[in-house]
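User: Please fill in residues for this 329-position structure.
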């Protein structure tokens, strides 16, 4: 793996751009969540595909799909991040969260399952929590069945975050935003009911909140049991694709007014736990937030309001692939 470039704010997040073979480019991220220090929680965000065939309307990482990352290539991204701060690869953090969410729909790649089985004990963290965020593509039932088994065997008692990208309660709008054959709300609810067990984290229903995109609390309550599902509200981050598709944030970043607050209140009054995943606005400038993709910025070579304003630094560093899915050294 050759690391080509990085965009860095050492106190918040670093995005790395890397290449395995010509045309096989990925990005991966290490970040913290202020005010929580790295010693208590550290986050890796890795790519699972080279490009993405889903092409979500607000995601800069879509398109240019050329294949799947192997488990070793996914673990190489994690290993590089671990060794960037700890030379032996054994991280000194209480909680290491590994998100399969930078580039690529993870459910389209069975290698994700292999990579997941290699995580326990690999980095020496007190606790490793994987996070799989998916649009729930149709025809991938075996992937989700195997995911349930892996969670039960290796990541029980709240050590797994399952997240579905919903974005709207209107199915036609969901098709516009995520143009791929996928499970409808009823199928997602059925899977979540089976996936969730006492002691687990609730299955997260993620909404990138956008102007004119309906989120009906009554529809969510009809399908999803608040005892098993939580609602995650995220501001839509500034991306070129959102601009091209005339998508706008429900509220401007940093100004969460009554419209945002009323939606959160209605969800809570209906019994849902609500995760308001607002994060640091500075991450938009780094390009490390969900839906952002530094490579798109390099291709466009144009400024985007409130996004991608940090300098891209050349790296040109070769990193050896791991010897096997279960090896660190």
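Assistant: Residues filled in for all 329 positions:
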């Amino acid at each position: 793996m050759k690391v080509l470039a990085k965009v860095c704010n050492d106190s918040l997040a670093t995005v790395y751009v890397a290449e395995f073979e010509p045309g096989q480019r990925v990005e991966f991220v290490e970040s913290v969540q202020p005010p929580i220090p790295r010693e208590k929680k550290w986050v890796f965000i890795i790519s699972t595909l080279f490009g993405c065939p889903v092409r979500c309307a607000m995601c800069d990482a879509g398109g240019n799909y050329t294949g799947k990352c192997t488990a070793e290539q996914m673990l190489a991204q994690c290993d590089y991040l671990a060794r960037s701060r700890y030379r032996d690869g054994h991280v000194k953090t209480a909680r290491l969260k590994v998100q399969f969410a930078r580039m690529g729909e993870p459910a389209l790649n069975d290698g994700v399952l292999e990579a997941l089985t290699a995580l326990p004990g690999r980095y020496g963290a007190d606790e490793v929590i994987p996070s799989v965020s998916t649009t729930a593509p149709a025809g991938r039932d075996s992937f989700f069945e195997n995911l349930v088994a892996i969670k039960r065997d290796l990541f029980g008692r709240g050590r797994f975050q399952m997240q579905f990208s919903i974005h709207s309660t209107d199915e036609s709008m969901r098709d516009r935003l995520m143009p791929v054959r996928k499970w409808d709300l009823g199928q997602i609810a059925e899977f979540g009911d089976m996936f969730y067990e006492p002691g687990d984290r609730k299955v997260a229903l993620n909404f990138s909140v956008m102007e004119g995109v309906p989120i009906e609390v009554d529809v969510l309550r009809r399908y999803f049991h608040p005892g098993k599902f939580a609602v995650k509200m995220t501001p839509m981050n500034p991306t070129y694709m959102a601009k091209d598709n005339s998508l706008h944030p429900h509220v401007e970043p940093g100004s969460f007014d009554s419209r945002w607050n009323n939606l959160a209140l209605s969800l809570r009054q209906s019994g849902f736990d609500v995760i308001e995943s607002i994060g640091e606005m500075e991450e938009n400038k780094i390009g490390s937030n969900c839906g952002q993709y530094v490579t798109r910025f390099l291709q466009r070579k144009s400024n985007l309001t409130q996004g991608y304003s940090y300098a891209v630094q050349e790296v040109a560093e070769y990193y050896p692939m791991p010897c096997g899915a279960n090896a660190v050294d």
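For context: The chain is about 30% helix and 25% strand.
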